[in-house]
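Chapter summary example.
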Amino acid sequence: MKAILRFLKGREWPSWTPGLLAALGVFLYLIQAVIYAHTTIPGLDEGSYLLKGILFLRGIYEPFQPYGPLTNKAPFAFLIPGFVEYLFGAGLRTGRYFAIFMGLMTVWGIWITSRRWGGKWIALAVTWVFALSPMIIKIHAITASEVIIACMLSWMCVFVLAEQRFLWQIILGAALAACAVLTRQNMAPILPLLVLYVFWQHGRQKGIWAFIAGSAIFVAVHAYYWPNILTIWAPWLPESITPFLNPFRLPKDALPVWDPSIDFWNRLLAFFQGVRYHFIPVVGSIASLCIWSRPSRWRSASAFRAAVFLALLYFLLFALHAWAAVASQYESYSCVFCFNPYLTFFDPLGVLLTVIVFSYSNEQENSLFKRFVLIFILLIVAAGIGYSLFELVGPQILNLNVPRMRDGQILSGTTLLVDFLKNKFMLTVPSIKRIISTICGLMVAMSLTLMLLTVWKRGKSTGFLRLLANSFLITGLLFFPLLNYGQSALDCKQDLILANERLGEHLNRVIPRNSLVYWEGGLSFVPLVYVPNIRIFPPQINDGYTFRNGGDPDLLYRLSHWNGALNNQWINSADVFIVEERRYDQWDAFLSSKHFEEYPSSSYVPSCQERSGLRIFHKLP
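The structure predicted for these 621 residues follows.
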């Protein structure tokens, strides 16, 4: 190993080597993104963005329109994919190829800023962090706002994060910050913190221009959609101090149907799954705080200011999204396992924070407190990552032979580990798997820490904090296939883009123009994106998440929700019913009557899940 390091360090590489290797990383990223784009099952959000977006761009509805589709996100979340569909054709292919383009732009922007602050080799490493992160790539490859926000933040940093910037770059950076907030309201801290950073780093005049540019865009969009745009802010603000927002809140007597109870252990699982899938941005940012030094010890004052801005923004967004997803139920439904995709929003900030701090901060090596804090945090993270990998604990581990024990004494013979733990501690098999995987993660971290302590005491050629942080990050890179185990697997083997296109063409052929369609075809409305000349019941786009028990029907409909009374009205007035095969049992008695006739079904199905095909019925005159 030492010989390899000496060879790499002593060799003079051609100047184009880092660029070529970075291009190879981008190519690997692209290959994975295309594969995921064609094999990932469309979800509710993706169907929502695609269908609402094209409906808004065609002028059939407007964002926040009463009795229209639910605009539960800031308007650009729907208008941006809708605009792309309007230009290149509505459908899953357009949405996902656009997402891949935004993902590539995200990586390019991070590469530019990383090269500016850390050099071409650091920029190369950052490119490969994304190329080796299949879970992040999978999220980047679907039509969702995560990759749009990540791209905006990446280029915001390109335009603003430097020692000197032209005024036009500052204005563009502030405009992107405002657009990020107008894409997802949960990005609200970005604009004010960016303006403060510009004042601090680039001076009063450019700070004023950043404030004007960002505020003008933000205010203009709010003025255009006023007052109904307040519906996106009402859930976030306490009712006791914002009674004026009550007209934009759902009535108390309308109770959600979807209200799952997620216990502490599954919330903990969701949290550490997110940390595991976004290992470098999260752990790198945490390590950055631990090797952070006094301002006087930084190699550059502008680097210090940039790091302060990135740290404040990254950890504020991290805390807000952890609270919203894992620790609370800020909406009428719980989205605990949304924490993983949420982290994708601000991955660029965490990566750039790591690059700048590791490149410019000179930590004080005599800080025992910092060493203790970093070791403690890394042990907790490792144990949590082990906990989130409990599904890897199989029979090979559970059926290990261990000594038999009773009353603290070892008996003759052996027993299986799983039986020993079940009998000794009255544990279930899932609990045993979680305990074993947690201990394994902790043991790996402890072994690595002890090994590094030994090496450091012998040589002391580098600071222990930096040695420990770098070693954990490199270990994470080496174990990326393990860290990304699970959701990064391919959903299907067949081409789902092509299947949805063919299914959509079939629906467009058999459903008469101007038909009023009742949807019971699954969570995703993607197939109806290909059927432009029909009418729908807009609240159904969000499926059961917008369904309520009780409440005034007209008030709910005005706020883009529905209940049983509205459902009965829509069933009686609909011309065509689209029913997923797995849901057909609930509709058999109704649709098999003499009042309905079934259209021919398509051989194409929208996903590879069992019984996901669609059956189409129309009401007879």
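To summarize the output: The two ends are 80 Å apart (CA to CA).
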